[in-house]
Amino acid sequence: MSTTAAGAAASSFMAVIHTIKFYLSEHPAIVGFRWSNTQCWGSTWLFLFNSIAIYILLSLFLHLLLSLLLPRGTTVPLGPLPALHSLLMSLISATIFAGLLLSSVAEIRETSWFWRRSKTPFQWLLCFPLGTRPSGRVFFWSYVFYLSRFLHMFRTTLSVLRRRKLAFFQVFNHSISAFMSFLWLEFSQSFQVLAILFTTLVDSLVYGYRVWTAIGLRSACFPFVVNCKMVLLGCNLVCHVGVLLLHFFNGGCNGMGAWVFNSFLNGVVLLLFLNFYIRMYIQGKKKKSCAAANNNNNELSDTSKLKLN
């Protein structure tokens, strides 16, 4: 009986895995996907620029409106909305990560005959062969990732309502993220597979951590979100160097014009984030030194009181 039950459980588990794999990498809508200005929503340059402009203007308008209507330091109660947004983004990011990972394995298996003499699977992830078209499984999940960037922008609204601050880096980073993901699709840019895998993995962890802390559970003893972002930017930098080497020494990579612009934008984001990270580190050291000085002063005062007594 136990053997039969174990076999039935294993069969059910394999059936679930097969179903998940089908809907994430083998569904006809995924396999037959093609990036097209007439078939895909949000696939035109006009839509992209209008969306980013509206996002920036709405963020500025909301910030100014709250500054005029509410006293300084007053926040807007949001209830569970930030936690729900974080939960949704964590689930979407995890789904994109799993779907793209399975789709990449399937694409490598089916197309390796075309490029296996000149590339390894890892090199294919970094460097698409020249002439690659934006169609198939990988580009379907790249398109889903592009759409998720607009939902990602909603976090700026939540930050303005909750903290009454409009951070330039946050607005710039969200705008650039949407712009770069559009370039990946429009020019079949190399490196996008690893970039999306890294980003969605980090996003699923970061947003999951925000849900964790929002429901009152214990937070990490170090700046978890900032360190995750730092690791992501470091991985992207290493991969950009790899793409450059493969392009010059291994026959060329597809979409290098867009890659150059992408690299420039990533460099700007990295510099802004490093500036923020260093300032945060210096402020943390100052707070620790002040706290240590206060403790020493308290100990000295207690000692002097004991001597006087």
Automatic annotation (TrEMBL):
Keywords, in A-Z order: Fatty acid biosynthesis, Fatty acid metabolism, Lipid biosynthesis, Lipid metabolism, Membrane, Transferase, Transmembrane, Transmembrane helix
Top-level taxon of origin: Eukaryota
Record field: transmembrane: 43-70, 82-102, 166-185, 191-209, 230-250, 256-278
Main location group: membrane
MF terms in GO: fatty acid elongase activity
Single Gene Ontology BP annotation: fatty acid elongation, saturated fatty acid
An annotated GO cellular component: endoplasmic reticulum membrane
Coiled-coil residue windows: none
Membrane topology term: Multi-pass membrane protein
Keyword set includes Glycoprotein: no
Alphabetized Pfam families for the sequence: ELO
Subcellular location: Membrane
PANTHER family the UniProt entry points to: ELONGATION OF FATTY ACIDS PROTEIN 3-LIKE, FATTY ACID ACYL TRANSFERASE-RELATED
Protein name (database record): Elongation of fatty acids protein 3-like
Upper lineage: Eukaryota, Viridiplantae, Streptophyta, Embryophyta, Tracheophyta
